[in-house]
């Protein structure tokens, strides 16, 4: 992710199928050539057995600095394949997305009351892998792989191309993405902004919500305050631990409306609490490099590898477009637009 919470492509791989060998090959190269040493990295994925295999086979991915988290959307989809219930579907998402431990416990007990097997299914999954309140801030509040899948969707038409054309189309799309984001960063910088667009909007939304709050100081020295919004239950904001009872500050690394209210009370700029990873300078630096044009193929060096011809795959005599091999699941279903149907 970049500083604007957008997908930032790091590596692409062309493989014959999604299996343990291909994922091991890909993640081994990522771990060796891309992940910096002594850096904390969080990898969000589904629970595909091939990815499990890669994590077992790549030693670099077994260090405490590399954390794996599951996409909550895939967790819910697999959950729904076992337990078809709209109520359980809703409770599963709420349990996984809440940053508050007490709320997680409450939702899980509701699931248990509705279906003991459904509770056992979720309880068997390591909580830090799918439940935000146990994450510890590793995933920066990112619950799903939706952004990467939307980027994959933009490249969907490339998958049926020959490999050379596929690589070229992916390269051109990446160049276009970098140019657009570099230009956006320059424009925001010229406008005097300190943060990218999405982060700036999030800060402004929190600043607007702080108007209807009551702040009660408990300890100025250690920075402990009680904050209530209108008639809601007060929450505790602790500046010394960068923590708020709502959980958002600790899990998203972004100050919430309660923290903004305390900043207003103290006449303290909230911008000082935003980490460097969300600042415009980080966004600009991420897209500062140039992706140079590809040289003419006649100028490519000889790498001394015997190139094999592509495998011949016989096509059926069926008329029309080839059917996709990807199986649809609950995540692909969309609500009907007809009146009276859901």
TrEMBL record:
It comes from Cuscuta epithymum. It comes from the Eukaryota. Residues 2-78 form the MULE transposase domain. PANTHER family: MUDR FAMILY TRANSPOSASE (PTHR31973:SF195), POLYPROTEIN, PUTATIVE-RELATED (PTHR31973). Pfam families: MULE. This is MULE transposase domain-containing protein. Residues 317-342 are annotated as: Disordered. InterPro entries: MULE_transposase_dom. Residues 321-335 have a biased composition (Basic and acidic residues).
């Amino acid at each position: 992710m970049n500083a604007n919470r957008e997908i930032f492509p790091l590596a692409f791989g062309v493989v014959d199928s999604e299996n343990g060998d291909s994922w091991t090959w890909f993640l081994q190269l990522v771990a060796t050539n891309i992940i910096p040493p002594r850096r904390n990295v969080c990898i969000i994925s589904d629970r595909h057995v091939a990815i499990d295999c890669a994590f077992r086979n790549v030693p670099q991915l077994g260090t405490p600095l590399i954390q794996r988290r599951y996409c909550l959307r895939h967790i819910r989809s697999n959950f729904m394949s076992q337990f078809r219930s709209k109520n359980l579907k809703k409770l599963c998402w709420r349990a996984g997305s809440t940053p508050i431990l007490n709320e997680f416990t409450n939702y899980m007990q509701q699931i248990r009351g509705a279906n003991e097997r459904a509770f056992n299914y979720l309880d068997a999954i390591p909580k830090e892998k799918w439940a935000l309140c146990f994450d510890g801030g590793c995933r920066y509040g990112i619950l799903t792989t939706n952004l990467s899948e939307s980027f994959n969707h933009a490249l969907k038409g490339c998958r049926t191309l020959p490999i050379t054309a596929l690589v070229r189309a992916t390269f051109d799309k990446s160049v276009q993405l970098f140019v657009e984001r570099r230009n956006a960063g320059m424009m925001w910088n010229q406008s005097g902004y300190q943060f990218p667009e999405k982060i700036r909007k999030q800060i402004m939304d929190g600043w607007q919500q702080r108007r209807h709050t009551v702040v009660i100081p408990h300890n100025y020295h250690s920075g402990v305050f009680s904050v209530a919004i209108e008639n809601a239950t007060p929450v505790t904001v602790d500046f010394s631990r960068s923590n708020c009872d709502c959980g958002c500050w600790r899990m998203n690394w972004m100050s919430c409306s309660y923290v903004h209210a305390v900043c207003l009370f103290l006449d303290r700029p909230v911008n000082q609490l935003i980490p460097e990873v969300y600042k415009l300078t980080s966004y600009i630096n991420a897209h500062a490099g140039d992706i140079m044009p590809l040289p003419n193929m006649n100028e490519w060096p000889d790498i001394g590898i015997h190139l094999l011809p592509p495998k011949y795959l016989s096509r059926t005599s069926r008329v029309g477009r080839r059917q996709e091999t990807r199986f649809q699941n609950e995540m692909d279903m969309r609500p009907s637009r007809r009146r009276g149907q859901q």
